[in-house]
């Protein structure tokens, strides 16, 4: 739906920010543009809504050259999220969200309804409608910034480092939320970022730029597996190459399938026996159907030994689990970062099917950095 | 004191009339100033180079002695209220213009880009973004210039424009201090009251979100 045809941009003063760029983006695709600072990401993006006009070449949307359409009309049909969020401090959240609709002369009651509807998309209550931007947290403001770009149901959305200013946790949850939203609404998205994790997570295709040119444009998997050159390799970073190991795809493939378990009707002394026997300090608790109930460890038993005698009385139900279908690359970093010793692996019915230990993950990471070649030969 | 009371009983009605005249001259001049200076100030933000020149020229005019300006208008427009209003208008323009220019220029560039990117026309940006956000600064200019005008309007009397200046000039000519007091005190009160009133107006026209933000900060 969006096509760059030999597009170049030379700024006044002769700076060549974008050079002979060719790119075709399909409807519903999520494209991330990534590259070092000053490589022309923002310039590329702003040419799409004519905030910057190309010097050479043509950009077309659904076959129509953008230079032939009126810039104001064009921009109202394209959602735009700027890095600084840019909510208007003198307008309520409601007014901010529905501003494009106001420009499009949509009546007030419809604008209100739309603002409400959009707010519910990001799980915010209508109470927020009457507040002002400074009364919201950074993450909430950024959500509103995104909603504003969705207000007129624009099919194409441009985002320039929209989550750049957020703390890592808010950022991660917003990314997840936004990816879901995008799938649901089937938007075409051009997303500028300088965070490789973000790009890998969100993009259908990643465009890697350097000095105004595209170095590689591929799916995240393809880029991880076959980096076009050293620059890309460097840019991805060695530690991410683990995610590229072709013979390791899902968690199921790397877990160990026989974790040590116990059922809830056993006594605590039996549990301790079992731990001793296998030299572990915790056990996964399951029922007869192998459905995961929780976990017990030496410490818990020690604390509650006097009051309870059965495993089911002391089980700790809050356990972080992963689904066996999860891709390794999506979990590895999380597990390592959260510093867990092991993670139980479950299937879609929450049945325990295996366990991933920190030690086994670390092995994989090391293998992939130093031993990928031998391993792939064997595998 | 007695003389002043006596003065009031004889001239009370006339004084009210002169106060009204005084207010009329200054307010009309200020309104004209707003009408011209606010749009001009916004327009100048589009031409930063031209802005320097225009404000430079206005700055120089501002330094002309007011008497000279008033006298200058006599051969052109004769005597009376109209030339007085026009002369005062010249003084009102600069503070309002300068504040409008600064206020609009001070609006965050990211907000302008957000507006442009979402498809606002130039006019819509002025109306929905730049002016509302610059209102506090613009209003400060209007307040300042109106209060000054009330003081300067005393000079209108010099070219037959009337107002409370009549008393002051009579007082000066006839060596009667009570006349001067009777002219000067209401002028001061008028200026204070106007400032107070405009302060309220500023509160009404400042967008609610900005007021809340400032309270929070
Ligand atoms: N208005 C301008 N006039 C002249 N040169 C410009 C202008 N805007 C950008 N440039 C230059 O063009 C190049 C590309 O800029 P651009 O903003 O597209 O980079 P970017 O990839 O978005 O970088 P960043 O990650 O820092 O945002 C830079 O070298 C920049 O200095
Ligand atoms: Mg940029």
TrEMBL record, chain A:
It is found in: Cell inner membrane. GO terms for molecular function: ABC-type quaternary ammonium compound transporting activity; ATP binding; ATP hydrolysis activity. It catalyses: a quaternary ammonium(out) + ATP + H2O = a quaternary ammonium(in) + ADP + phosphate + H(+). InterPro entries: AAA+_ATPase (IPR003593), ABC_transporter-like_ATP-bd (IPR003439), ABC_transporter-like_CS (IPR017871), CBS_dom (IPR000644), CBS_dom_sf (IPR046342), Gly-betaine_transp_ATP-bd (IPR005892), P-loop_NTPase (IPR027417). Residues 255-314, 315-374 form the CBS domain. Keywords: Amino-acid transport, ATP-binding, CBS domain, Cell inner membrane, Cell membrane, Membrane, Nucleotide-binding, Repeat, Transport. It is a peripheral membrane protein. Coiled coil: none annotated. Its EC number is 7.6.2.9. Its main location: membrane. GO terms for cellular component: plasma membrane. Residues 2-236 form the ABC transporter domain. One of its GO terms (biological process) is glycine betaine transport. It comes from the Bacteria. The complex is probably composed of two ATP-binding proteins, two transmembrane proteins and a solute-binding protein. Belongs to the ABC transporter superfamily. This is Quaternary amine transport ATP-binding protein.
TrEMBL record, chain B:
The chain crosses the membrane at residues 23-44, 56-78, 84-101, 133-159, 179-198. Keywords: Amino-acid transport, Membrane, Transmembrane, Transmembrane helix, Transport. It is found in: Cell membrane. It holds the Pfam family BPD_transp_1. Residues 19-198 form the ABC transmembrane type-1 domain. It is a multi-pass membrane protein. GO terms for cellular component: plasma membrane. One of its GO terms (biological process) is glycine betaine transport. Belongs to the binding-protein-dependent transport system permease family. CysTW subfamily. This is ABC transporter permease.
């Amino acid at each position: 739906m969006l096509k760059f045809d030999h597009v170049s941009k030379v700024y006044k003063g002769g700076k060549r920010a974008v050079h002979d760029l060719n790119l075709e983006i399909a409807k519903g695709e999520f494209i991330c543009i990534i590259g070092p600072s000053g490589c022309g990401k923002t310039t590329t993006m702003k040419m799409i809504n004519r905030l910057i006009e190309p010097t050479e070449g043509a950009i077309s949307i659904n076959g129509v050259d953008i230079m032939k359409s009126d810039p104001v009309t064009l921009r109202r049909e394209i959602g735009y999220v700027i890095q600084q969020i840019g909510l208007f401090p003198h307008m309520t959240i409601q007014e901010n969200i529905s501003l494009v609709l106001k420009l499009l002369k949509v009546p007030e009651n419809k604008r209100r309804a739309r603002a409400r509807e959009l707010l519910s998309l990001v799980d915010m209550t209508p109470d927020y409608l009457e507040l002002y931007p400074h009364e919201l947290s950074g993450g909430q403001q950024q959500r509103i910034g995104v909603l504003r770009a969705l207000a007129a149901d624009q099919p194409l959305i441009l985002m320039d480092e929209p989550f750049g200013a957020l703390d890592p946790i808010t950022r991660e949850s917003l990314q997840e939320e936004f990816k879901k939203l995008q799938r649901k609404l089937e938007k075409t998205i051009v997303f500028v970022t300088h965070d490789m994790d973000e790009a890998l997570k969100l993009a259908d295709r990643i465009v890697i730029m350097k000095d105004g040119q595209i170095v590689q444009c591929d799916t995240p998997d393809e880029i991880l597996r076959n980096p076009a050159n050293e620059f890309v390799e460097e840019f991805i970073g060695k530690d991410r190459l683990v995610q590229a190991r072709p013979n390791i795809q899902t968690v199921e493939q790397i877990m160990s399938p026989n974790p040590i378990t116990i059922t809830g009707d056993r006594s605590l002394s039996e549990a301790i026996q079992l731990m001793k026997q296998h030299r572990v300090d915790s056990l996964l608790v399951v029922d007869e159907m192998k459905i995961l109930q929780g976990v017990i460890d030496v410490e818990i038993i020690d604390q509650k030994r006097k009051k309870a005698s059965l495993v089911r009385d002391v089980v700790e139900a809050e356990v972080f689990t992963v689904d066996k279908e999860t891709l390794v690359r999506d979990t590895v970093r999380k597990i390592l970062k959260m510093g867990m010793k092991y993670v139980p692996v479950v299937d879609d019915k929450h049945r325990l099917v295996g366990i991933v230990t920190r030690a086994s993950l670390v092995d994989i990471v090391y293998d992939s950095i130093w031993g990928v070649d031998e391993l792939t030969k064997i595998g | 004191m007695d003389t002043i009371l006596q003065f009031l009983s004889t001239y009370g009605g006339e004084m009210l009339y002169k106060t009204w005249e005084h207010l009329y001259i200054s307010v009309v001049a200020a309104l004209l100033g707003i009408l011209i200076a606010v749009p001009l100030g916004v327009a100048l933000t589009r031409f930063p180079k031209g802005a320097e020149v225009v404000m430079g020229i206005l700055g120089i005019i501002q330094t002309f002695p007011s008497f000279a300006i008033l006298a200058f208008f006599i051969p052109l427009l004769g005597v009376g209220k109209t030339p007085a209003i026009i002369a005062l208008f010249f003084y009102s323009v600069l503070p309002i213009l300068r504040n409008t220019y600064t206020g609009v220029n001070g609006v965050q560039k990211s907000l302008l880009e957000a507006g442009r990117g979402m498809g606002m026309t130039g006019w819509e940006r002025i109306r929905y973004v730049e002016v509302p956000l610059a209102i506090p600064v613009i209003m400060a200019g209007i307040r300042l210039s109106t209060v000054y005008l009330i003081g300067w309007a005393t000079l209108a009397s010099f070219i037959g424009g009337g107002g409370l200046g009549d008393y002051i000039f009579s007082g000066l000519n006839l060596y009667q201090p009570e006349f001067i007091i009777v002219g000067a005190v209401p002028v001061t009160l008028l200026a204070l009251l106007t400032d107070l009133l405009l302060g309220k107006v500023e509160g009404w026209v400042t967008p609610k979100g900005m007021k809340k933000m400032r309270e929070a900060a």
